Amino acid sequence: MTPPVVETIDFFYLSMPRIEDIGDGSQDMLLVRVRAGDHTGWGECEAAPLPTIAGLVCPMSHSACKPVAASVLGQRLDGPADIARISRDVRANSLDLLQAAHVLSGIEIALWDLLGRRLEVPVHTLLGYPRAYPKTAYASALFGDTPAETEAKAAKVRADGFRAAKFGWGPYGRGDVAADAEQVRAARAGLGPDRHLLVDAGTVWGEDVEAAAARLPALEEYDVTWLEEPFETGALRAYAELARRCRGVRLAGGEGAHHPHLAQHLVDYGGIGFVQIDTGRIGGIGPAREVAAYAVEAGVRFVNHTFTSPLALSASLQPYAGLADHVLCEFPVEASALARAATTTPIVPDADGQVHLPDGPGLGLDIDPDGLRPYLRDVEIIVDGTTLYRTPDLRS
User: Fold this and answer.
1) Which of 48, 166, 249, 250 fits a 20 to 30 Å CA distance from 74?
2) Residue 362, in any domain of the structure
3) Does 361 fall in a domain?
4) CATH code of the domain in which 270 resides
């Protein structure tokens, strides 16, 4: 049988009617559809939709700055090795196209979904895992504008059965040390003493170690498991210095990594205890699986990063599905109506707060075109009278 080739790549820009200036990445979405032969796969980029669409179709600038589509269309897709080969081609041919990693991520995820559907197995099976272990969902939410609001959010998380919760962004790190301590105290008060509490600083301190270190006493006092992204991804010296000052709390980071090397550097030189990878940024599922294997060897815990749709959540779980000792899983609890509308079925924690991977082929989820249609943006890119991109038909 002749192996199928990638025939079409469709990008869909979806958005909430109103975008708020808050740390909520679920307010818009770049959905990816890939077709090869009689089979279709779906993926999602964790990126601003418009520049990412441009990265798919932009005219060639030079030999190392080609549109991503040029390295994917017409390629054979018969097994995991083909996905790895396509990814290498994209990184080489679009080396100077800095949006390429985001473009590649959604396409690569869709290729895994397509291959799994074609072979009628889940993606994690294609990755070599004999079984998928459930993960302990941590409710991922923004800090409230006030400590009282944060405490109420934490109390709801506990009532909803979550065994862990993460609060981040919002006012944290933008005021004084006492105000931040009060936010952490409120989160612990609402969550109770027997749940994991995680804090996400959202790179608010840039590379200011002293500002971050001033928050450590409160994090230690209220038994916080990790402080996430105190600094920008590449600030390795700052990470390492802060890690040396930590006692009980560990550092977490890596969601901004757009190549496995960047995540590995955080492990080797940044002193992090948890490496968080977003399949929609790092180049897809294969590179995330590479980081997961590296984390095992380094004695660091791998954690997914996702704050958008169930499709992105499923993709983010595949790279460490078979790692029994890597148990925490980011689970968005404040995702937008758009994110909730993306698939026909949600992923929900069970009564014990555990998330189970979908057991269907590919990513195990089906896209809901009717649910998404109200959010579809009409986009056209024209250069010298030639249409490079026009919003495709979501239902066709």
Assistant:
1) 48
2) no
3) no
4) 3.20.20.120
Residue at 97 is within a domain: yes
pLDDT of the residue at 117: 97
Question: Measured between alpha carbons, how far is 215 from 222 in angstroms, rounded to an integer?
Answer: 11
Q: Is 62 helix (H, G, I), strand (E, B) or coil?
A: strand
Is 192 found in the same domain as 54? no
- Is 345 part of any domain? yes
Mean pLDDT of 220-235: 96
What is the predicted pLDDT for the residue at 64? 96
CA angle 113, 36, 48 (to 5 degrees): 60
| CA atoms of 351 and 349, how far apart (whole Å) | 7
Residue 24 to residues 20, 156, 165, 279, 334, Cα–Cα distance (Å): 8, 19, 16, 17, 8
89 Cβ contact partners less than 8 Å away, ≥ 6 residues apart? 71, 72, 75
Secondary structure, 3-state, 139-205:
EEEECCCCHHHHHHHHHHHHHCCCCEEEEECCCCCCCCHHHHHHHHHHHHHHHCCCCEEEEECCCCC
Query: Is 350 found in the same domain as 216?
Result: yes
Q: What's the number of domains the chain is made of?
A: 2
Predicted pLDDT of residue 334: 87
The pLDDT of residue 187: 98
Residue 108 dihedral angles phi and psi, to the nearest 5°: -60, -40
Strand partners, 167: 141, 199
Kindly list the strands in the beta sheet with 28-36, ordered across the sheet, starting from the edge strand earlier in the chain.
6-15, 28-36, 39-45
Q: Are residues 77 and 179 in the same domain?
A: no
CA angle (267, 259, 40) in 5-degree steps:
130
* Owning domain of residue 133: 129-355
pLDDT of 1 over the 80 cut: no
Asked if residue 365 has pLDDT above 80, the reply is: yes
Same domain, residue pair 141 and 47: no
- Give the separation between CA 331 and CA 294, rounded to whole angstroms: 23
User: pLDDT tens digits for 312-356?
Assistant: 999 999 999 999 999 999 999 988 999 999 999 999 999 999 999
Res 22 pLDDT > 90: no
